[in-house]
Amino acid sequence: MLDKEGIAKRIAQEIQNNFYVNLGIGIPTLVANYIPKDIQVCFQSENGLLGMGPFPKESEVDPDLINAGKQTITMLPGAAVFDSAMSFGMIHAQKIDLTILGAMEVSEMGDIANWKIPGKMVKGMGGAMDLVASAKNIIVAMQHINKAGESKLLPTCSLPLTGIKCVKKIVTELAVLSVLPEGGFKLLERAPGVSVETIKKATLGKLIIEGEIPEMAFD
After folding, report:
1. Catalytic residue among 5, 14, 46, 210
2. Is residue 12 assigned to a domain?
3. Labelling 13: which of 23, 126, 187, 192 has CA 20 to 30 A away?
4. 46 given a catalytic annotation
5. Geometric angle at alpha carbon 205, from 202 and 211, rounded to 5°
6. What pLDDT, in 10s, does the model give residues 144-200?
7. Which residues is 127 bridged to in the sheet?
8. Contact status, residue 141 vs residue 25, Cβ threshold 8 Å
9. CB count, 10 Å around CB of 17?
10. From the centroid of its chain, how far is CA 133?
11. Is residue 218 part of a domain?
């Protein structure tokens, strides 16, 4: 099985040259650390930054420079800082090529729940609703099962939705899956050492398996 760093490293393989990418809170923020050196990528943070770099070393930390999750970050040469109105203008105008988000649940139709657990205090949905409504492409970085051992890839989400029919691909500690337009999780890759049978048991939603499923490949 993959750890959080492994999930981020696999998702980094999905990013293409000259992409503008928004990274959500949690595992997605780790993706910036694994971008291949031969491609150019511009990371956007919804709190008002274009040109976000990897996490800083201790000697580089600037407490005034943070991402949407309030983690300290770095800025690459040519980066720009602006207000949230301009930031969400970029998002609404679909200037972002790829959005990478965490999730609590994803349904077999591509619905996502990633902002609220009933009974727990939250400050609000934040920018997630804008991102899922406007993004051209959404990849979810998440755990396949919850702490109770229950599947988080479901026929329908039980938690309040953030968006409907918007998720295109999911990377978990067990697998890479795509969400088909007609519904269902298509198994694309297995994590190293993980069997197809293990993924079947961990997936409550409709799982489509065609042919031999390769293991994820890392450089």
Report:
1. 46
2. yes
3. 126
4. yes
5. 75
6. 999 899 999 999 999 999 999 999 999 999 999 999 999 999 999 999 999 999 999
7. none
8. no
9. 9
10. 15
11. no
